[in-house]
User: Fold these one by one.
Assistant:
Number 1:
Amino acid sequence: MEVFGIILSLFLLMFFAYRGFSVILFAPVFALLAAVSQGFSPMPSYTELFMAKAVTYVKAFFPVFMLGAVFGKVMEDTGLAKSISHKILESLGPNYALLSVVLACNVLTYGGVSLFVVVFAVYPFAAALFKEADIPKRLIPGSIALGSFTYTMDCLPGTPQIQNIIPTNFYGTTVYAAPILGTIGGLAIFIGGMAYLNWRLKSAKGEGYGTGHTQEPTLNKDMELPNWIISCIPLLSVLIFNYVFTKVFVWDPAMLEPFVSLKLPMMAPAVRNVIAIWALIVSLTIGIGLAIAIGYKNLPKDRGLQKALNAGAIGSLLAIMNTASEVGYGNVIAALPGFKGIASALLGIKIGGTPLVSEAVTVTTLAGITGSASGGMSIALDLMAKDWLAWANQIGLSPEVLHRVASMASGGMDTLPHNGAVITLLAVCGLTHSQSYPDIFALTVFKTAMAFVIIAVHAITGLI
């Protein structure tokens, strides 16, 4: 009965999220439903457990969410993101429309632009290119998803997306963890994903772009976009400075000592646990400054800069609060007696004699339930990272492999139909789940499988 209460709570959360209800409101509702069903008092469960864990998450990752959102909004409003995507799509042309869209998304996401901004920046040009090439419009979401929601999000070493940042807080790793495994996984996803999309294109021969579509963009061919080479400077700066402050710059381990006596709540145990976050904070700040300097003249004259900065900052609040609510929910569930059996079963997955399969299954399952890669991974790591790390230390497994597997698994089943990014992508493109979600789901299944493939690669070769 205890396990049933948890399963019912999870089902209701997933159902309401799919129906478009805010998890900020309903995550605590269903967390308390599960807690009350197992004899926990509702108010302490909410204020002392749910909120405490949610606030801990906000403390750790809010700067990354905020600066990432501001960076993406500045890149969007200055036209720098559109300039880059337009150049790539224009250069490759209609004959390589699918590849053009994927590569345009790759450049922007790997450079630190948020996934949601990428959708708005790339879609107008993708629609124009697909129409010119007479390719079915329904393939655009799958192309954008492959370029934005997969390997540049969580596979490739150094990617500044939040899904690659979160594990650093639990394993003391950096965003460059397990670079060989990440690169192998990323290349496999790119090649397999492109092969699938091209197969879908061939099978749709004669269908054409289609008619009666909504959300059709109108492009002004005479519009002046910033020079694409200059537009790349902020993206490159984020990557370069992130590498410098992670791998080259030496952070003083004694930096936290003056704060120990203050007995600050939720303080990081050591500098190495926050280097990845500090490095990205500095890098994104530099990127924002460069984007403003380069694209300032393209901003609207009427408080354009103010609006861009404010919109980015305010927009980040929804993202961080959604994820924090999911983290709070997960921790309430983890405290319940009924969860002990579930946790034991997950930790009992000992395929290959390592915690990797257990970690991958747990992370991708929770990501699928919550409809959030970052939310599902945060819940899983908050609950079980210490056990996985202890297990890894016993068998001599590098924490870097734990990092990469967790990151890749988070970007697996997260893109189920109720995922916010999927819903936004389809809405922007003016398409429905029935028209375009089958392609996104196929890529989701393939992407999920790749997390287990790199586990096998590591087991066979020992590569990191």
Number 2:
Amino acid sequence: MEMKKLGYQTAMTGKWHLKKEPAAYDYYNVLPGQGHYFDPKFRVADAGAWPNNFVQHEGYVSDIITDITLDYLEKRDKKKPFFLMHHHKAPHDDFEYPERYDSYLADVDIPEPASLYSQPFFGSEATLGRNGSLRDRIGSSVSSRHPYRSYAHQYGLDSVADENQRTHLAFQEYTKRYLRCVKGVDDNLGRLFSYLKENDLWDNTIIVYTSDQGMMLGEHDYMDKRWMYEESMRMPFIMRFPDKIAAGSRTKAIVNNTDYAPTLLELAGGKVPDYMQGESFANILENPSEAFHEATYYRYWMHLTHHDVPSHFGVRTEESKLMFYYGEHYLPEKYGKNTHTWIEDPSDTYHFEPTPAAWEFYDLSLDPKELVNRYKDPSYADEIARLKKEIISQRERYNETDKDYANIQLVIDRHWND
């Protein structure tokens, strides 16, 4: 809407993943929910009334999304500037790819993270349970560790007797599927970039390549994207804007995804409205060594709803990270007071029990792979106390307090000074 006020024609193509119609865009052509990798349906702005405005396609979703985008660019009003959100579904789990990528990386052995096999000082009671009681229950796995959500099992490797070999095979299959899925995105971006170059749009179009999060690829024997650990929390962000960004320049500035919209609005000549939470980092583009945020905030609130990831929040600075697992769902009245994690009782039945609350602190300057939880190390007491104050400040800034959720606030109060 803000870009439209500045005279831009606006479009949304590909993944939308929201229930409401993207009616604020001049044009949309989006997948329903997550959509399908093959022969997907799309909801199209001029194909009827939402949510029944479906158009069926044949083929692979990354190819189709690019076809739709190229068609839009060709038919747009070429006298006006455009703002286009080109969203790929891939690489969303489970990673599906077209046959043309079957041979890609087939003869390559992908390097494996050491923490896939051993990490004796990682984690906390929140991720391991008391005395390791939840080690096999928290976080879906590449190995056979998790009893019902592991890639070793999903890929039919249960018959491989050697545990490490089973894990190795599962990792190779998992990672190659992921990278083949990503290659489909890369190749289609090549098609999009070629169009921009061939139509004299390449040098006067701001291009932003990013994602909604990173992805665990076996680190800590985790998969999925909801963790605050580096591989998941860090997001790709590449921007091309020849007028302001020197080719090949990099920055260590800490940026939050709430800062994207304010930055693009400023670059388009607009002002950041009061309702937006983020800040523009446009000055960083020309001055990549300048400081921006000292810390950034993260939260995952859907406690064990997906991939058995516990609810947690925290802050990350350039050199350290503090995380608090509070082990409660934000809507206990909806999910039940004890819908937290599976615990097997002596009668071989399952029931739900709360997961422990716990803190984790990682010194990223010494331990970039987050292998040693140093929360109990007294030499970090001052830094941890400072970061706790930062958490409070950031939660208030982003309206992320739990004042309306007594069950969560009770856990926070009880364990804040553990």
Number 3:
Amino acid sequence: MIGHLRGRVASRRPPQLTIDVSGVGYELEAPLSTFFTLPAIGEDVFLLTHLVVREDAHVLYGFATSDERQLFRMLLRVSGVGPKIALALLSGMSVEGFASCVRQQDVASLTRVPGIGRKTAERLVVEMRDRLAGAALSDDYPGAGTGGSGAGAIETEAFDALVALGYKPAEAQRLIKSAAPGTHSTEDLIRRALQSAARE
């Protein structure tokens, strides 16, 4: 099991990134909450990781905090929830925000995350209640990093990230257009788009 990586950011295109560790490039997938904390390409980074082994691939996931990784691992133990849904949940809301939804049995907020239907949301509330009660989740990841090199590139990267999270292309485009004015980075645009989706 690979527990963490320390290296330099070689590439970043949400939700995928590559970390160069002593000349070896590790490809990872990460929630958008982690992307918001990443330094610029070429700078040093430390990420906690979780390796998912499938019949057709070994996929490495990266996380900025232990809370994110702990919640990801707990979500994988819920019936019907795989890595893609777990990643979407961590991208669509904070660790504390998810815990709050579970405590308040807020099924409606959970169903706003792409890929989460009502039955899955209800299962999450039931199965995660006791697990979260015994976990010390602090949601302590730091603020956003910066990225992007132009409005067109920023919007393209944000669109790709939203589609990768499960939004339909037309919906992703609509969210980006409504969130684009005043944004200065891919992470900022994605965050605004997700906030807009959560309010609907």
Number 4:
Amino acid sequence: MSDLFSDAASQRAEALAPLAQRLRPRTLDEFVGQRQVLGEGSALRRAIAEDRVRSSIFYGPPGTGKTTLARIVAASTGAAFEELSAVSASVKDVREVIARARERLGTSGTRTILFLDEIHRFNKAQQDALLPTVEEGLITLIGATTENPYYEVNSALMSRMQLYELEPLTVEELRTIVDRGAAELGTTVGEAARDLLVVRSGGDARSALNILELAAETSDGEVTEQHVDDAARKRPILYDKASDAHYDYISAFIKSIRGSDPDAAVYYLAAMLEGGEDARYIARRLIVHASEDIGNADPRALLVAVAAAQAVEHVGLPEARLNLAQATIYLARAPKSNASYVALREAAEDVRARGNAEPPDALKDGSYYGRRLGHGQGYVYPHDDPRGFEVDHLPDVLKGRTYYRPSGSGEETD
């Protein structure tokens, strides 16, 4: 009786499942996207087809197919397949899976594949519990994560797993998925509406299908831009202040300023602010950039950056966004020079290589006690004798070295 009710519940659940669940690919031929890791003849595609997938981590943003790939592996393997979510699983759950895997291998020689969703949510103790079994091959571990595994998964476990990075789906790939969804729902989607839906999904196939399903429910047969706009209330912003996005966007921001591209720089600024990045962090990076990449080509750049940082402290968000935008555009348009950065770097290399070389006696303290040791003797005071401007003031062992080489850009001339 219980089996009868379970079967009926499963059938009803499948009929009521969200569109994204109903359209989840079951084979590699149905899978859309990720050609960089699943193209014809690729190592992962062949491993799945030949049932020899090794312990792996599927890493990428939501809606890129991590769980779907794991389910395809489950459908194509001769091994037993177990699934846990790191959000709710405990060390006890992991040990029970390991015990069953050991029993299967001992009694029937059957391998076990464990799919661990959200593996980054496992703490060190939980990850350590998996390590011996992965190392000896008792289980094949497939982990899925939206977080950079090099931050979240311990290095011992990472060294025993293959890493596959999945990317946000392209516009064409999302269009294909939307067309499949429209066919499943028996609705039509205008080209403009489809393009808007693709943009609003942010490269996330699940989000695209969820938006489409809701838009179709409010339409009269044809999904329009208005239906999509009404259904897509969630902003397609993926930004994690503690992980990859934090570093990737600030890197793109600084490189855009360095490359004198104000449009790209202000875009990345907007992306970080919309994603909730700390405005003080952005301001600090602008201050560093003003000296590192602009320097004396435009000395005012540092003043502008410091003023923006002060505005962030005194005015706060959201108004200080304007101050950050002004500073960003000023720095992007300013002439560039890294001469100060290079000079400091080369001087520091000499200090590390030679230690703190003593200044010449003529430059040492010439006060009463210094004079008794001969310090300060022979010093040429430039204001009285122009020859003082021609003296090489470096330590004797470094005479002739040149650290600062003016770039000739902007105000930084010889």
